[in-house]
Amino acid sequence: MRISTSMLYDLGVNGINQQFSDLLKIQQQMATGRRVLSPADDPIAAARALDVTQSKSINDQFITNSGIATDALELQESVLTQVTEMLQDARVIAVNAGNLVLSRADLDSLASEVQSRYDQLLSQANATDGSGQYLFAGFRSNTQPFAEAAPGTVAYNGDQGQRLLQVSASRQLAVSSSGAEVFQLIRDGNGTFVTAADSGNTGTGIVSPGTALDRDAWEASSRDFTINFTSATTYDVIDNGPPSSTLVSGATYSSGSSITFAGAKFNITGVPATGDSFSVQASRTDQDIFSTLNDLITALRTQGGGAGPASNAALTNSLNSAFSNIDQALDKVLTVRATVGASLREVDSHVNAAEDFSLQYSSTLSDLQDLDYAKAISDLSRKQASLEAAQQSFLRIQDLSLFNFLS
User: Fold this and answer.
1) Band of the pLDDT at 34, cuts 50, 70, 90?
2) Which of 191, 195, 186, 192 is nearest to 83 (CA)?
3) What angle (nearest 5°) sits at the alpha carbon of residue 79, between those of residues 74 and 80?
4) Bridge pairing between strands 245-252 and 234-239
């Protein structure tokens, strides 16, 4: 086989280029801290690293979503805390209004205080987050959820949806609440039935909110009754049916004594006039906070205040109704707050788990991709020596020509 000068040059240059390429690769590995710079370096490790990287990216997104969920839930909790305080303030005002020596001016002043709480409550119901999205509009987060058509009449323009965020591979968490569920779909009365005095009563009878002794018996009844006073000391209980019938006839009345029928128990105090009546009906599920406060405002402005015993009794009955309805509203808001608190704890749990997964993914990627610097430094020294040897060899080979020995 003939070995030409050009072949010698090609072999020498190729050898130097190969050594230089190997040296450059080690330098790149040391600069990036990664052993696998391309799939060709380690196909199995590269494929595995791709899977782990994708899993880590998804897990990182769950952590991001959890942060967004935490912010939304904490903001919702803050608003609901303020709503709770406003309702508690309104209840305290109602308690203060129970002092029957208060003048009309005093009651008007208390009504103005309740009106202030009403306005604040409406503002909080229309609260937004940092991006201008309404907290209590359901899926319709760009639409103002509550609009007042008339005093105490507030329309809900949102929907019943709850916005969800994916906080783990198997869990979507609600980060909003329906405004109707929080502020409107509330039971009135004691939650089972509601008692009320007829607006036309002329006596001083005051009815208590009552309690349910036997819910099954109540549910089995018509859940619609009227107590008619045939005299100051006797009354009939009318079952409004259908069909309408007299459940109790000529019962003896004494102030404060218990009245019990159909699983319901309550009492009436004071001196009802002949013809006065009181109703006992099933609790509705659509009593809203706004109408509750507006009814209280109306009662404070129109009843009591020295207008006579009958007006004082009407005010006391209105206050009793307000107490029951405000308590039901507070229970609903506290239930929602408890749900929000549970969601916050769950988010924390998911974040902790996701952060553990993130550490595991990072560790796995390190094992697959990271460079062993001790080995790399050794390889770098070896490759540098090989490159220098290749260069020296090429120089020696260049001098191997017969022309150098001809004279």
Assistant:
1) low
2) 186
3) 95
4) antiparallel
Strand partners, 268: 207
**Is pLDDT above 60 for 187?**
yes
Tokens of 368: 């697959």
Residue 364 φ/ψ, nearest 5 degrees = -65, -45
According to the model, what pLDDT value does residue 397 have? Answer: 59
Q: What percent of the chain has pLDDT over 70?
A: 79
Angle (CA) 112 116 121, round 5°: 145
How far, in Å, CA of 23 to CA of 379, rounded? 8
Calpha distance 84→338 (Å, rounded): 12
Question: Counting every residue, how long is the chain?
Answer: 407
CA atoms within 13 A on the CB side of 340: 26
Neighbours of 398 (CB within 10 A): 12
CB-based contacts of 357: which residues, under 8 Å, 6+ apart?
Answer: 59
Local structure of 134: helix, strand or coil: strand
For residue 243, cis peptide bond before it (omega within 30 degrees of 0): yes
Decide if pLDDT at 15 tops 60.
no
181: DSSP letter = I
Return the ∠ at Cα 56 (arms to 55 and 59), rounded to 5°. 90
- In angstroms, the CA 395 to CA 376 distance is 28
Q: Beta 153-156 vs 146-150: how paired, if at all?
A: antiparallel
The string of DSSP letters for 349-385 reads HHHHHHHHHHHHHHHHHHHHHB--HHHHHHHHHHHHH
As beta bridge partners, residue 282 has 193
Distance CA 244, CA 225 (A): 9
Where is pLDDT greater, at 374 or 274?
Answer: 274
